[in-house]
Design goal:
alpha/beta, Aspartate Aminotransferase, domain 1, Aspartate Aminotransferase, domain 2, 7-stranded mixed sheet, 3-stranded antiparallel sheet, 16 helices, 16 strands, binds ligand F0G
Amino acid sequence: MKTIIEPFKIKSVEPIFFTTPEYRVEVLKNADYNPFLIHSNDVLIDLLTDSGTSAMSSDQWAGIMKGDESYAGSPSYFRFKDAVQDITHMPHVIPAHQGRAAEKILFSILGGKGKYFVSNTLFDTTRANIEYSGAEGVDFIGEAGKHPTIPAPFKGNMDVEALKAFIEEKGAANIPLCIITVTNNSGGGQPVSMGNIKAVKAVCHEHHIPLFIDACRFAENSYFIKLREPGYADISVKEIARELFSHADGCTMSAKKDAFANIGGFLAMHDETLAQQCRNLLILTEGFPTYGGLAGRDLEAIAIGLKEVLDEHYLQYRIRSIEYITNKLEAAGVPVMLPAGGHAVYLDAKAFLDHIPVHQYPGQALVGALYLHGGIRAVEIGSLMFGKYNDQHELIPAALELVRLAIPRRVYTQSHIDYVAEVIIEVFEQRKAIKGLTIIEEAPTLRHFTAKLKPIQ
Ligand code: F0G
């Protein structure tokens, strides 16, 4: 087997920014130890997110020039709608400016006090939009997904028995929707099997609970099914994706991930009445249903991206490149989530910094150390992101303390990735010098975006 190469050549480049360690000490302090508050010009390799950070193709840029900016009935909308329907076969396709805008609309209609939304794992904005409506989001991740360093093929799978028990306990009437996130971003970018989707669908169907897919990374998930699930090796990823959506009643999607777009998202569904309610709200908050908060050019970029992402040479390179860095780290003894996920490397910060207790946010401390040592920006997915307080204002920690290094699509080359691995391994060798953090200021919801912290001396 020859080296799996980047399946593209580079037409246009952007500078990256070299800084000194002394300078980065000042930057991190001025950003209150929160990577979201660092200016991107002070970052060398930016792995904060794979969202909206993809390199678009020359076809997508050409599509941008063809974008038709008519307020109503733009041909760009119809190309976008066709591209979404080609994969989902859902009759109602509603554009939105990004994933969370689609979520806000959906949960404003279906949410409310006393309701429960069940999931394998909800992403942070999804959960926040559910909670904002007054409802509660409940995760039922399968057993394999609870153990960061024990490999299993489908660690994103939902616990079907726990789902059944919950429906029994709360009553199906109080559960407006089940949401399966593919791949499971908050749980390590791990895939969900087709078998699990079918099993969840059967339970939902029996209780008349619609099943929606949070489809941000549907192509990466479909490729994992091809690689790992018996019976799918000879089926094209596009057909696998189509089957995946065929089990769902609807989906939300951030096109900033697997559609390679810099902005955009959508809602798609079968239910006509719900779609009409969504469109009515869309007009109020996003825009007319044929543009939904996007420019015509954005719709073109998404339509083209949705086709490109199903190219199996691309997906092979994509999944292999995450596995490549994960393997390097594992070989050096770095505690890393296994197996490799679809869009990011996840470090197990609890094991990496076992001298820092969870209430001192080991994940955030590790994020700071990676920036100081190598100018790399990562994000904490742990108790800063998901922690809650009890009545005594004590931290209720998240299940896992992870640090995610999300790899933007088609942006960095193998030598960038080698550099990232070197930095992580060096930080691991010097880990005992890293100190925990305390929060000095935080917002009531989604606090990780704006929280200010300081090191504990
Ligand atoms: N669902 C999942 C699984 C996501 O990963 C995201 C975004 C969203 C929904 C919301 O989409 O950003 O377009 O509003 N994830 C980004 C990330 C922000 O860094 O993982 P959005």
